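User: Can you recover a sequence for this backbone? Please restate the input before giving your answer.

Assistant: Of course. Working from this structure:
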């Protein structure tokens, strides 16, 4: 119509400007408020080594006695012939001379895996992802692939199963402390239960554990989840027993 457009008043732009400033400031503030974790050092006499193993557990090994996988969990499992992939991390007493060795990252075998797991934990917990930004950069006190200590064995085994949505590495400081005192700690990622399980072939198995809000239904679901976890732990313990007796290859064979 030939009319000159009205110039927006200066105060109308304030909300958008404030948001931009907040986003620019949020990064440094988050880094200051939520720094990279610094884990307490183990107090035992042994250095600590760690290895992450990935096993494909056949259906025959998954069902023993009354502890069986639910049919719906079997249908979700990836792999040939219904095999269920299990990622297990070991912390164990290591040999001497690990002082200058590079330490293992927290939350995963690599920083990329740690970022995936960190994002999944934030999503599962319902918290902003930037609150956990420091976790993928954290380093633990364990040395990946360190040789097993030649003295002090045989070492007792402790199995660790994280809570619903939890991941195998969440209690790393606790696992390292036990390993430094002569224990082998085996922590399990439960497929479709842990927030995210990253497999060596790049697949990511995300949690499908959700509550319905109905107490009776949720209790029944919890029973099924518990049986699935028990079967996972049974399979891991069976595999470790075979490794320990020399019946299978592994980092702790014999």
């Amino acid at each position: 119509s030939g009319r000159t457009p009205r110039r927006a008043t200066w105060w109308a732009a304030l909300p958008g400007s404030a948001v931009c400033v907040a986003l620019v400031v949020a990064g440094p503030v988050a880094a200051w408020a939520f720094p990279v974790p610094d884990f307490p050092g183990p107090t035992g006499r042994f250095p600590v080594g760690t290895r992450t193993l990935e096993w494909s557990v056949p259906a025959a090994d998954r069902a023993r006695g009354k502890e069986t996988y639910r049919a719906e969990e079997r249908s979700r499992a990836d792999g040939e012939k219904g095999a269920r992939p299990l990622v297990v991390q070991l912390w164990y007493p290591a040999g001497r001379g690990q002082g200058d060795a590079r330490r293992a990252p927290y939350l995963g075998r690599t920083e990329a895996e740690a970022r995936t797991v960190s994002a999944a934990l934030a999503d599962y917990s319902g918290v902003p992802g930037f609150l956990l930004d420091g976790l993928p950069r954290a380093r633990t006190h364990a040395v990946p692939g360190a040789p097993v200590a030649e003295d002090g064995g045989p070492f007792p085994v402790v199995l660790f199963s994280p809570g619903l949505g939890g991941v195998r590495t969440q209690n790393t400081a606790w696992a390292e402390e036990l390993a430094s005192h002569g224990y082998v700690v085996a922590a399990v990622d439960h497929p479709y239960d842990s927030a995210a399980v990253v497999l060596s072939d790049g697949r990511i198995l995300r949690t499908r554990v959700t509550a319905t809000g109905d107490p009776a239904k949720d209790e029944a679901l919890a029973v099924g989840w518990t049986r699935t976890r028990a079967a996972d732990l049974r399979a891991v313990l069976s595999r470790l027993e075979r490794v320990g007796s020399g019946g299978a290859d592994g980092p702790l064979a014999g």
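That completes the design. Residues 44-244 form a domain with the Rossmann fold fold (CATH 3.40.50.1820).
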